[in-house]
Write a structure and sequence with these properties.
By secondary structure, this protein is an alpha/beta fold. Helices cover 27% and strands 21% of the residues. The protein has a six-stranded mixed sheet with strand order 13-14-17-15-16-18, sandwiched between helices. Helix 6 packs across helix 7. The radius of gyration is 30 Å and the shape is elongated.
Length: 420
């Protein structure tokens, strides 16, 4: 019968008999677990020989002898000879040393599991009847994928002594655009402090005991001031809870992530930042608008559309080889467009408005700088929307279109349909 057990190899002697490619991989794994390695083999791979020369492992350059197992806690044999491997297993069993027979797993007294880790959780898979490495690796990989997706419960029931905060960029909205790191942190979270935009669909996947705190801002309506958000993060983490601050886009692209990092560090709270796909890039891409394109635009200028454009922004708007992306700029569009025109930006400059990017309600309005305000009003442009100024917004840049209509309004029926 086989029983799984977690072994602590830290500073314990492991004897490895055989020094081929299999042994090299296993020794790397054992050393990573903290083991001291004694290698027994007449010849060794270049990699193992280099480790021995550097003093990182002990190498006895001769055939195996039972006394090689003196003081050993664990043994691994991979000589390529069934009879030699069997002799190693027998010698190890006589000394009550667990032994892995890599040549025939079912004839050893131990097996190395196919492992995967997520945070402080390690999962191992072994075959209960005979060695079947392909199957165990396939099962391990399937579990690893589920862990990466945040689909398995990872939260520790016992709270740590010190809590933590993770500022997680959730990207433009679809749950499957979250990073692997983001999914893992959400699976471990005790508290999720989230915005109105971003991948809010992932919240339904969290356990009932996870505290959800909505601090989302809406145009002209900020029910939870930033100072209060900072206080919430610090308060929950100070209680020993794992806090995820889930944001749309990237925490450091108009996400006020810097202010939250400062607040956490001032309170002595461990904080990490997990990048996300900024809507400045992802939303135009969803509409088939590349923010840079060889031969068209080699410079990207991202601005807060609510602010009056500064000299650098006005210069970019005049530059035929630059792209200007304005976030949160719908209400200030008249002022923004007027300033651009007054500064010498051409009225013919192509413009694209991408509304509700990466949602079933996504639509794209293509126009020009001179007609932008009029067309936005005519089409009832509303937040959330990303505004793109520059030749990359030409309707015919990636896909041929008719020149008949001065305003092209493209409605995307579903996020999975590609360029709309």
């Amino acid at each position: 019968m086989i029983a799984l057990a977690g072994l602590d190899f830290t500073d314990r002697l492991v004897v490895c008999v055989g020094a081929g490619s299999v042994a090299e991989k296993r020794i790397a794994r054992l050393r990573a677990a903290g083991a001291r390695v004694r290698l027994v083999a007449p010849v060794a791979t270049a990699g193992l020989a280099a480790l021995a020369a550097a003093g990182d492992i002990e190498w006895r350059g001769r055939p195996f002898a039972p006394e090689d197992l003196d003081d050993a806690w664990f043994c691994h044999t991979a000589t390529g000879s069934a009879s030699v491997d069997a002799a190693v297993v027998a010698a190890a069993e006589a000394r009550r040393v667990w032994c892995v027979n890599a040549g025939h797993g079912g004839k050893g007294t131990a097996r190395l599991a196919a492992e995967t880790t997520s945070g402080d959780v390690m999962v191992g898979v072994v075959s209960a009847a005979g060695a079947d490495p392909r199957r165990t690796v396939a099962v391990r990989d399937a579990i690893a994928q589920r862990l990466a997706e945040g689909a398995l419960p990872l939260r520790r029931r016992r709270r740590p002594l010190v809590g933590s905060v993770a500022l997680v960029g959730g990207g433009p909205g679809p749950v499957d655009l979250l990073t692997v790191r983001a999914r893992a942190l959400l699976a471990e979270a005790d508290v999720v402090v989230h915005d109105r935009l971003g991948p809010t669909g992932v919240l339904a996947e969290l356990g009932d005991d996870v505290e959800l705190i909505d601090v989302g801002k809406r145009p002209q309506h900020h029910p939870v001031p930033q100072e209060e958000i900072n206080a919430i993060l610090v308060d929950r983490a100070a209680r020993g809870l794992r806090v995820v601050r889930l944001k749309g886009g990237d925490p450091f692209v108009y996400g006020r992530g810097g202010e939250e990092v400062i607040a956490c560090r001032a309170a002595g709270i461990p904080v990490e930042v997990v990048p996300g796909i900024s809507s400045a890039i992802a939303v135009p891409a969803a509409a088939g608008v590349p923010v840079t394109h060889r031969g068209v635009a080699g410079t990207l200028h991202v601005v807060n559309g609510q602010e009056h454009p500064g000299e650098a922004t006005l210069a970019a708007l005049r530059d035929d080889r630059a792209t200007v992306v304005a976030l949160m700029g719908v209400s200030a569009l008249p002022r923004f467009a007027a300033a651009a025109l007054a500064a010498g930006a051409p009225p013919s400059r192509p413009v694209a408005f991408v509304e509700n990017g990466h949602t079933p309600a996504q639509r794209t309005i293509r126009t020009t700088l001179g007609s932008a305000v009029q067309d936005a009003e005519a089409q009832s442009l509303a937040n959330p929307a990303v505004l793109v100024f520059g030749d990359v917004a030409r309707p015919d840049l990636l896909l041929p279109t008719s020149d008949a209509a001065p305003v092209a309004v493209l409605v995307r029926a579903a996020p999975s349909q590609g360029i709309g």
